[in-house]
Amino acid sequence: MSARARALTGVIVMAALLVLYFVFAGMRAVALLSSGTPVAVIMGVALLVLPLIGAWALVREVLFGWRSTQLVDRLDADGRFPDDLGDTGPTGKPNRDNADSVFPRYREEAEASPGDWRAWMRLGLVYDACGDRKRARGAIRQAIRLERDGIGGEIAH
Questions:
Q1: Which CATH superfamily is domain 96-148 in?
Q2: Using one digit for the tens of pLDDT, what is the confidence trace for 30-83?
Q3: N or C terminus of the chain with fewer C-beta within 10 Å?
Q4: For residues 111 and 156, what is the distance between their CA atoms, to the nearest angstrom?
Q5: Cβ neighbours for 73, distance < 8 A, ≥ 6 positions apart
Q6: Residues 72/125, Cβ–Cβ less than 8 Å
């Protein structure tokens, strides 16, 4: 099973579990709200609000994954995917030492072309290969934002 298929399966399972949770939490919330006691009503409201927050977070992550996958596919189709990260290990991840060694190039490229979504996407991929997930997500979010807003000039090579 491919990585995409596994990811899609995971999203479907999580969404199904969230829907199941909504059903059971909703039934319990209605019972608590109808009891009329202040503590039960507060708990009932919490049972309605917390799943909504979870649904929002799930939708946000699914959209992030979908948009970032689209941009990775575009980079790959254009032959602009970072190809100097070296061979991947058994986990499918690039070698971290190789990623660390090429990182300055991609950082400089993004700094030199702050409006180019391609530069930010590549920087995000290299951050991820270096093991810095927080900065990787930030750079990829910036790439998504720039591409969505129609900004994304070409990089001078």
A1: Tetratricopeptide repeat domain (1.25.40.10)
A2: 999 999 899 999 999 999 898 888 888 888 988 998 899 999 999 989 888 887
A3: C
A4: 12
A5: none
A6: yes
